[in-house]
Amino acid sequence: MSRWEGLEEFVAVAETGGFSAAARRLGLSASHVSRQVQRLEERMQTRLFHRSTRLVRLTEAGQAFFQHCRQLQDGFDEAFRSVLDLEQSPKGLLRITSSAVYGERYIVPLINELVAEHPQLQVEMELDNTPRDLVQEGYDIAIRLGRLTDTRLVAVRLAPRVMYVCATPDYLARHGTPTSLADLERHNCLLGISDSWLFQADGRELSQRVAGNWRCNSGLAVLDAALCGIGVCQLPDYYVLPHLHSGALVALLPDFQLHSQAHGVWALIPPRRNLSPKVRIVVERLRQRLAARPEYAEPGFA
Predict the structure, then answer these.
(1) Max intra-chain CA distance, the chain
(2) What is the DSSP annotation of 6-69?
(3) I want to staple 215 with a disulfide (CB 3.0 to 4.6 A). Which of 4, 11, 94, 191 is the partner?
(4) Distance CA 104, CA 23 (A)
(5) CA–CA distance from 119 to each of 90, 115, 286, 298 (Å)?
(6) What is the per-residue pLDDT across 84-111, written as a single tens digit (0 to 9) for each?
(7) What is the pLDDT of residues 14-40, one digit of tens each?
(8) Do β-strands 141-147 and 263-269 pair in parallel, antiparallel, or remain unpaired?
C-alpha cells in the first residue's frame, strides 16, 4: 500500500467538512472516501477526525497533519502546472501591485504590450505606495523600489535606482551650492516622507538629517516645489532626469550619490509562483526592457 494513499481524500474531507461533500468533489463514492480515510488513520495509528451524525471535524492531530498535507498538495499542483504550462503562452489572471508614479510611467506600458500580445492574459493592477502582503492578498508580482526588507519573497532586480540631490540654478545663485553633507544644514531642504536623506561614501551608506519649511508625501509635489526654486530636493532618477537634462535642475553632491546594488527596482514574487509561465514571462519582459532604458547607460548607474 502506498504511503500517499488516502491523502487526497483526507484533504477533501478536511476542506469540505464531510465525507459526502468530499466524495462529490472527487467524483467518488462516500463509502470509498470513508474507507480510505479510515485506512489512513489505521496506518498512522491515530484518529484524524471527530465524527458524529451531524459533524465531521479535525482532531488536534488531524489539524497538524492537514497543514502539512496542504503544503504537499500545493507542491504537487505547482509541479504539474510547471510541466503542463512549460510551452504554453501566458494566460489567466495576473495580479500586480506597484508604486504609483513608477508604475504609471514604466510598468503599465510594458504590461499593456504583453496583454496586446497575449489576449488570454488577464491583468489586475493596483498602483499605490501602500505596503502589501503578497501571500495574504493573492498578488503574483509586486514592483518595489529601494532596499528590500521582506526576505520571504523571491526578488528579481529589474533595474537600478539612483537618488539625486538637486535644485534650480536660481535657488543656487541665491543661496550657494552645497559641496558637503554638512552644507545641507544651511539650505531649505524639501521633505517627503522622511527627515533623513540617504547618501553613499567610501562604499558605505550614510543617513543625513535635513530640515526645511516645506513637506509633502508626494514625489511629484516635491519635484514641483524644487522646480519653483523653493529649496533643495532628493528624488529618484525617474523624477528628475528630464529636468537635469534640460538644465531646469542642477545635480548636487555627486561624490555622495547613492547608487548601490542593494537599492534598485525589484519584482517580488511569492514563493512557488515564480514557476508559472505568466509570472516568468512578465518578469523577464520587465527586466529586459527596464534595464535597456537609455539613461542607465549614463555614469552613476549601478
Answers:
(1) 87
(2) THHHHHHHHHHSSHHHHHHHHTS-HHHHHHHHHHHHHHHTS--EEE-SS-EEE-HHHHHHHHHH
(3) 191
(4) 48
(5) 9, 5, 18, 36
(6) 554 466 788 999 999 899 999 999 999 9
(7) 888 899 988 998 899 999 999 999 998
(8) antiparallel
Place of cell 451524525: 53
Strands 49-51 and 92-98: unpaired
d(CA 237, CA 165): 10
End-to-end CA distance of the chain: 57
Strand ranges (E), the chain: 49-51, 56-58, 92-98, 121-127, 141-147, 154-159, 163-167, 196-201, 204-209, 233-236, 250-252, 263-269
pTM above 0.85, yes or no: no
Do 278 and 147 touch, CB atoms closer than 8 A? no
Q: How far apart are CA 18 and CA 23, in angstroms?
A: 9
Q: Within 10 A of 124 (CB to CB), how many other CB atoms are there?
A: 12
The dihedrals phi and psi of 231, each to the nearest 5 degrees, come to -175, -165
Domains and CATH numbers, the chain: 7-84 (1.10.10.10), 92-161+262-297 (3.40.190.10), 163-256 (3.40.190.10)
